[in-house]
Design a protein that fits this description.
Length: 196
């Protein structure tokens, strides 16, 4: 049986991707060879990573997404500041946070977790932190490299008033290749609406 590496996400409009592209370009100028930057064209707001799912479960997942999205009206999000996981001393991931109607986003995430748990997907143990991943530090980055990188990121002020409307959830397929992941939308479910 075919298995599909997949996740549920909110896709970003072109103007947000353009802003992330320009932010990444300025960060790359910092010359940190141990950071693997994410292609801005593939950045999305992940709500739930599903892992390798049997292709036969796709209709059930779309149904769960539709039930979750139906009572939620579209809402606005905006890009926030820069951050790192897990902490500034040992960063592994650099990201942009989210602002705007975060309560609506958190409620959507919580309801999606509930709907998917009935299909056997375990709820995430960590609390949900809405973010867009910009880059990951490679394993070869030394503890000193990591600490200096964390300090450098804290010194960068990233502010923008750009916001965007969230009006759909996407079920995405992720194919891992040597040159990076390739993302394909399998289905889109409108907020307050139905599957497209």
């Amino acid at each position: 049986m075919e298995r599909i590496r997949s996740f549920i996400a909110i896709e970003l409009p072109p103007q947000i991707r353009a802003e992330l592209r320009s932010l990444e370009a300025s960060l790359k100028a910092g010359q940190h060879p141990f950071v693997k930057w994410v292609d801005p064209g593939g950045i999305h707001l992940t709500l739930k990573f599903l892992g390798g799912i049997p292709s036969t479960t796709v209709p059930e997942i779309i149904e769960a997404m539709t039930r979750t999205a139906q009572p939620v009206s579209p809402f606005a999000l905006q890009l926030g500041g820069l951050g790192v996981f897990p902490n500034w001393q040992r960063p592994q991931v650099i990201w942009v946070g989210m602002g705007g109607e975060i309560d609506k986003l958190a409620g959507l995430h919580r309801d999606l977790e509930t709907a998917l748990s009935s299909l056997g997907f375990a709820p995430e143990s960590r609390s949900f932190r809405a973010h867009l991943t910009l880059g990951r530090l490679r394993e070869r980055a030394s503890p000193k490299d990591r600490q200096k990188f964390g300090e450098w990121v804290t010194s960068i002020k990233f502010e923008t008033s750009l916001s965007f409307e969230v009006n759909a959830l996407s079920l995405m397929k992720s194919q891992l290749t040597p040159s990076g992941a390739i993302y394909t939308q399998l289905a889109s479910v409108e907020l307050g609406g139905a599957a497209v």
